[in-house]
Amino acid sequence: MATSIKGKRVAFLATDGVEEVEYTEPRKAVESAGGSAELVSIKDGDIQAVNHLDKAGTYPVERQVKDAVVDDYDALVLPGGVANPDFLRMDLDAVRFVRDFFSSGKPVAAICHGPWTLVEAGVVDGRTLTSWPSLRTDLANAGATWVDEQVYVDNGLVTSRKPDDIPAFCDKLLEELSR
Fold first, then answer.
1. Distance CA 82, CA 162 (A)
2. Which of 14, 59, 114, 132 could bridge 18 with an S-S bond, Cβ 3.0-4.6 Å?
3. Whole-number CA gyration radius for the chain
4. Does 4 map to a domain?
5. pLDDT attached to residue 2
6. Is residue 160 part of a domain?
7. Separation between Cα atoms, residue 57 and residue 71, nearest integer Å
8. Gene3D superfamilies in the record, alphabetically (predicted)?
């Protein structure tokens, strides 16, 4: 039986350089399970997605992060891509938004390079998570324990390593949302 998250609202925090499938596939999973998704970004207009380093599709921003509040959502997803989280972690509103999600105790899911924004928000100390392997040292330096697993859940924080892990990532995201 498929997981239903009818009525749940999920913020997808992303900007230019987001890895396309790490945004589109989890969004499809949320919407297919009855939830609604909103693309939140540090800018308005459209964001430019990538397929590795090549340009992919563009996606319309539905709300700027400076205007977003955690109370409007049931969960947060941080897709990866190399540039996307690097831009996000330099934006004070994006970092605040991420930190506020952790303060609220609501589920947060991050894939690939997405945990870079978690490091900047100061929310990984004492947690166990996975990511793209190159983030291992950054996460350890921020106090996290890094594991090389397809998907790892630590008290509502869902993390995965790469696009190949998306099916398991989506399953765990939906599971956390259905609680």
1. 12
2. 14
3. 14
4. no
5. 61
6. yes
7. 30
8. 3.40.50.880
The pLDDT-based confidence of 21 (bands split at 50, 70, 90) is very high
Domain range for 163 is 9-177
**Catalytic site positions:** 112-113
Spatial separation of the C-alpha atoms in residues 76 and 98, rounded to whole Å: 8
Domains held by the chain: number: 1
- Of 103, 85, 106, nearest in space to 94 by CA: 85
pTM for the complete prediction? 0.97
2 belongs to a structural domain: no
In the predicted model, what is the mean pLDDT of residues 68-73? 98
